[in-house]
Amino acid sequence: MLLLILKRVLTAFATVLAVIVLSGILIHLVPGDPVTAMMAQSVTATPEVMAAMRARLGLDLPVWQQVALYTGHVLQGDLGMTIRGNEPVARLLLQRLPNTFALAVSGLGVALALGIPLGFLAAIKRGRLADTIVMVIAVLGVSVPAFWLGLILIQLFALKLGWLPVAGSGWRNILLPALTLGLTYCALVARMTRSALIEVLSEDYIRTARARGLKEHRVLLVHALRPALISIVTVVGLVFAYLLGGQVIIENVFSWNGIGRLAVQAMLERDYPMIQGFIVVFATSVVVVSMLIDILYGFLDPRMRQR
Amino acid sequence: MTVLSQTVPRRPRVSPTVLLGLGLATIIVLASLLAPMLAPFDPLRMAAGPRLAAPSLAHLFGTDEFGRDLFSRVLAGGRLSLGIGISAVVSGLLVGGVVGLAAAFGGRLTEAVLLRVIDVLYSFPDTLIALALVAFLGPGIENATLAIAISLVPFYARVTYGLAAAERSKPYIEAARLAGIRSGRLVRVHVMPNIGQSLVVMATLGFSSAILSAAGLSFLGLGVQPPSPEWGAILASGRNYITKAPWILIFPGLAICLTVLSFNLIGDSLRDLADPRRKARS
Amino acid sequence: MTSSIKSRLALMAAATAIGLAAGFSAVTAADLTVARSVDADSLDAQKASTTQSLQITNLIFDTMLTMDKSGSVQPGLASEWSMSPDGKTYRFTIRDGLKCHDGSSFDAAAAKASLDRALSPETNNPNLSAWGPITGSKVDGKALTVSLSEPYGPFASFLTSIQAAFLCPSSFASAEFKPIGTGPFKFVSWTRNDSIQLAANPDYKNANPLIENPGKPHIDKLTFKVIPEAVARMAALRSGEADLVEPSLEEATDLKNDSNFKVYAAELSGQQMLAAFTWKIKPLDNPEIRKAIGMAMNRDAYASIAFEGLVNTANCPVAPNLFSTDEALCASWGVKYDPEGAKAIMEKAGYTKDKPLKVKLLVHKLPGWDQMHQIMQQDLAAINVEAEIETREVAAFFDYMKGVNEKTDGEPAVWTMGMSGVDPDYLTFLWKRPGFVNMGLNAEVDTMLDEQRKLSGEPRAAKIHEIEKYLMENAYAVPLLSPGWGWLMASNAKVEGFKMGFMVSLLFNDVTVSK
């Protein structure tokens, strides 16, 4: 078990490192000299500031050394300064990170609360009308652009009915964006629940349990659902990553003050250090969450525990 | 990760959902191809009708804030969206395919390194990869297409690798190797024809995600720029009219949904067909 | 329940009833939340140039002088002021007992420190040229004496504008700037692109003639939120999340007719929108081509469609209602909407449908403007000019234009901008070399601009007309609309007393929020 944790932590670290290097390389995609490109966007670009920036980025060095330099800075927790406002990138991102997580977790909560029962229903009514309906909903769910759904929910709940606010960071403000994310990603959860449960239901011990004359709801709830839920845990990490990705747009639709909105703002302003910082922080969040879920799975699944 | 081990069986049973998907896709593709003939107005022409007119016989989907005919714009947008989707999928599939094959047949070290990189990239949502790339490349239709293509590479590389690795273990490959045939030739002559069909199936799955990414990028103002009638761009410029003229939002949104839905339906069924083991399970 | 509380409740109920009957309700101190589409770029009033920044700094800082509705100059931080007969020396007597937000006192020495910083090259003050030809200043008891190298007519009116804030020296005493002023609101916190928090200044003594409340603002806390999405802003207004918002232009007309809401339009905006050219780059160095592009622009459509009829076309390179602005006169100098004529000019110059002139249309994002640029793009296409729109955020745009306007080759660009002020002297700010974002023109214009500063009254008006005529006949500027940004606000009906001042400054001193 300890070995498993160690292995997961090391892999996670290697992945984050790879992402940092990649985001260091990305800046070289910008046509021309990065400092000129960056500073074309800044009013405070005195020659001294530009020289300092050049030295920091090591622009006289070969590209690989520049990337190494950037990686070094990031590993020390220094993501650089924003071009607009000259504030530390790391501080701005960390300020917003709790908001982003709050929304992601609420969205995931809605997705699980809707998706697991739907998937369960589809699995036990397999091949029948209820199954088909659930599966059609599932395909529809992954086909609707989340930002479009968001706009429609705003129109309905905020503008027409005036029930729920948008834009802000209170608990009532989180409801609409969380609902949007939840509705979009519950489809994924429903599908995964369905196939996990179907797999479990075909196992021998379920047949044995049924043969022993146990009540069907007992078989389903006690013997089938629990192991199925354990395998759902493995995919929660994946759903979470995709949800975080979709959330970048949703935060902008709802003017939700998370790192996604900060990032898109930076993208429109071409604030490159901010964008790089966002990539690093976002990737780290995804990697850490999936690492934790892997480890959690290790604890839940007896087969894994013995290893 | 789905590992595909079989090619498409000869006689697939066609389910109603595939028929629905195929029907929708055919209508959408035809409508987009014939857009210039079907569209009653030039999609860029302002004051083609009154401003913000509700749907009517003259303007089937209504008009937008400039009096442009929305029906014509949504049709023209289909050409753009499908065009972006196809270019991105083809180039993503080519690059991803080469990377996947290289991982499968390039020796142990190459395999280990490439696989690691692919897996890292694959763990990030493709929309996000596209977003990050566009941030550095700059907005515009070409850059958006390029970014979406790159964002699909990890997916296609992973799928190709899975197929090729399964093929690699087959006896005839071993025999060919022993006969002294080089890897390059082996892949070209023996592996490609065998996995090609399955790859085409996988391509449809990337297609719907490419369309969604393109719409998302344009909606944020980072993809196709106005006045181009790309669906996401129409939604972006029409969003403030949500109360006054909801049709500006409803029709392009539905167009995205139906397109993505149709390709998802086709892709899902084809995936089941291509992977009988999976089919048996579900 | 004790009887005293009971009777108090009864009294309150009675008071409420009376209030309602009289059409008023009980007014209490309250918090106010404002939602805008764009955040401030800086809270350092001597480094900020965007309207969105100055709207905030103007609440934290005061100006030396103020202006009343009729445009005449009134006391501000200075209780009285005088100009020497030769027009080269000004003397400002600083009001007694002025307190900075940190408790320090604001006196003539503080005013001098602030002035010195505003003029220092190290400050990089974007409004430096507007301060005029100041050669020095000295403290003389309670007074600050400012010397100029030559007469500068617009000096007093500039000192009333939101660009001419006076800071408390503690603001810039340390390396990190802290917004500390004497204004009606104290700075509390700023989270960039999210919110700015201000609190009422309990010691405030008002001098601004546009404001009635003599002392501390009625509201205690003032929060500015950034909500870029117009739809989300409207939702915030309707749900009560925000009390006062920049409404979406699309819905402003509907709000006006809804008794639950109030719509405010600034009458004193001093705003003017222009189209300009990279005239150093061929073929835009040719005035005929620039004129043709101007002739293609359908300004009526921009006003009625892009801005939903909420703004007017404006003919001069300076805003209507400012000193000397004469719309009819300007109309006789400027190009007239004539797409056919424009097309003929372009075709004569060799630009046909198959071989169009390719230009960039460099613009920044703002409500209404985005739509205007789309119509403009179509207007240009009609005269064989293929314009590619490139949109940036407001602050990033002006930084970018600085580089673009320096270039003498490359792809030609048409660009749009807005400028606001309280005096037509902002022509100097824009067009005198190097000019705002390097848009300065030539020696001839520089000379005329310098001359108008030394004049006053009728002769000055004549000189300004001469400059406007030059700009328009050579088509360096194509005046478009007025006003154009941030001039509209909407609140729920509970908000009373909100006003908008010059240059769409926001005045909250008189605001009350009824329960």
From TrEMBL, chain A:
GO terms for cellular component: plasma membrane. GO terms for biological process: transmembrane transport. It is a multi-pass membrane protein. InterPro entries: BPD_transp_1_N (IPR045621), MetI-like (IPR000515), MetI-like_sf (IPR035906). Signal peptide: none annotated. Belongs to the binding-protein-dependent transport system permease family. Keywords: Cell membrane, Membrane, Transmembrane, Transmembrane helix, Transport. Residues 97-297 form the ABC transmembrane type-1 domain. Its main location: membrane. SUPFAM superfamilies: MetI-like. It is found in: Cell membrane. This is Glutathione ABC transporter permease GsiC. The chain crosses the membrane at residues 9-30, 101-121, 133-158, 170-190, 220-244, 277-300. PANTHER family: DIPEPTIDE TRANSPORT SYSTEM PERMEASE PROTEIN DPPB-RELATED. The keyword Chloroplast does not apply. The keyword Transmembrane applies. Pfam families: BPD_transp_1 (PF00528), BPD_transp_1_N (PF19300).
UniProtKB/TrEMBL annotation, chain B:
It is found in: Cell membrane. One of its GO terms (biological process) is transmembrane transport. One of its GO terms (cellular component) is plasma membrane. It is a multi-pass membrane protein. The chain crosses the membrane at residues 18-39, 80-105, 117-138, 144-164, 199-225, 245-267. Pfam families: BPD_transp_1. Residues 78-267 form the ABC transmembrane type-1 domain. Its main location: membrane. InterPro entries: BP-dependent_transpt_permease, MetI-like, MetI-like_sf. Belongs to the binding-protein-dependent transport system permease family. This is Diguanylate cyclase. It comes from Xaviernesmea oryzae.
From TrEMBL, chain C:
The keyword Transport applies. This is ABC transporter. Belongs to the bacterial solute-binding protein 5 family. Keywords: Signal, Transport. The keyword Ligase does not apply. One of its GO terms (biological process) is peptide transport. CDD domains: PBP2_NikA_DppA_OppA_like. GO terms for cellular component: ATP-binding cassette (ABC) transporter complex; outer membrane-bounded periplasmic space. InterPro entries: Peptide/Ni-bd (IPR030678), SBP_5 (IPR039424), SBP_5_dom (IPR000914). PANTHER family: OLIGOPEPTIDE-BINDING PROTEIN APPA, PERIPLASMIC BINDING COMPONENT OF ABC TRANSPORTER. Residues 1-29 form the signal peptide. Residues 73-431 form the Solute-binding protein family domain. It is found in: Periplasm. One of its GO terms (molecular function) is peptide transmembrane transporter activity.
